[in-house]
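Many groups now describe folds with learned vocabularies. In that spirit, our science desk offers one protein's residues alongside their backbone shape tokens.
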Amino acid sequence: MSATATYTYSVRDRGGKLISGSIDAESPAAVATRLKAMGYAPVRITEQNAGLKKEIKIPGFSRKKKVKLKDLAVFSRQFATMINSGLSLLRALTILTEQTDNKTLAGVIADVRNEVETGSSLSSAMGKHPDVFPPLMVNMTKAGEVGGFLDSVLLQIAANYESEVKLRSKIKAAMTYPTVVLCIAALAVIGMLLFIVPTFAKMFKDLGGTLPAPTRLLVTASHILRYGFPFLILAAVVGFVIWNKVKRTERVRNVVDPMKLKFPVFGPLFQKVALSRFSRNLGTMMHSGVPILQALDIVADTTGNVVLARAVRDVQDSVRQGESITAPLKRHEVFPPMVVQMMAVGEDTGALDTMLHKIAEFYDQEVEATTEALTSLIEPLMIAALGGIVGSMIIALYMPIFKIYQLVN
């Protein structure tokens, strides 16, 4: 018989609760098989042997995996379908815990289920995980609980996030081509400066004479890059880390966000994306019954641009004083007259949420058309730029050779 060992384990039961214990078995695989037969989902198995612990992690389990908008959209739609089908809240959350592919989200759903089981409301349980559930989702869920139309609200959340995912994919599609071409151009220039130019520089030195100005400039750049390349890499890494830490600070955003809207080519695209996000989020929250002041406070933080956030804060102050929603928007150039007029009509007719969704649909179509136009415009420009950079470097390298050939003749 095979020797047995003692293993400590951590598992999740069908309700998502984390349970720990110990068991004697021949191998970690045998422990996992027995735990699964008991209806548990193994999380971690640790062998105890002579005072030493050998940890064995179950593949596929990671609480650090990021929860994306697409995951929240799928979760919301499945949740709404189960609630609409008559399943209880606890039963629906249990099923979602077991079938959600994202393990981080599955663990959070299990925690939410346990909170609900102990008497907490769904929205308050979700609010304890702000890194997973955005304020927009929590407040809409709260409105659905109070109004008794939770399934409808969850469907609206799913539709909102699906539209947001689609919008982001369009922007990524527009940015992919120029980014790839820029990377290729940078690699081509670095490769020529590090490997090709030094060979020509040695040959020119042996020949003697004075090199043309473009060639001297190219050789100097090659020397600087050869000896300073490690420092450039280090500076790039440090700059990237620092930028990720400061890019969301208020001081940086107050400078960067207005500049984004003034870019010659991409500025209008950034504006349309921000307006689409603002209209969709505000319309969805108003349709779900979220109080207007609370909805404006949340939307101001989700626009993604400080310029729009300031305008929304002005609207919030106007509404708090009993004035209209659209009056402050006229003072902000980021809101086109069409948006202001459509919102004014919606406010007068009592159908502001419907009008906001129409604005969002319009700007979604505008973003799609703009990205297609940008792609068509950028492709030849980037090809010409890449050809110009590489071609000018080749000409600079061959200018001394042409000069020598002329002298020989």
Q: What stands out?
A: Strands lie at 5-12, 18-25, 41-49, 52-57. Residues 50-63 have pLDDT under 50 and may be disordered. The first helix runs from residue 28 to 37. The chain is about 70% helix and 10% strand.
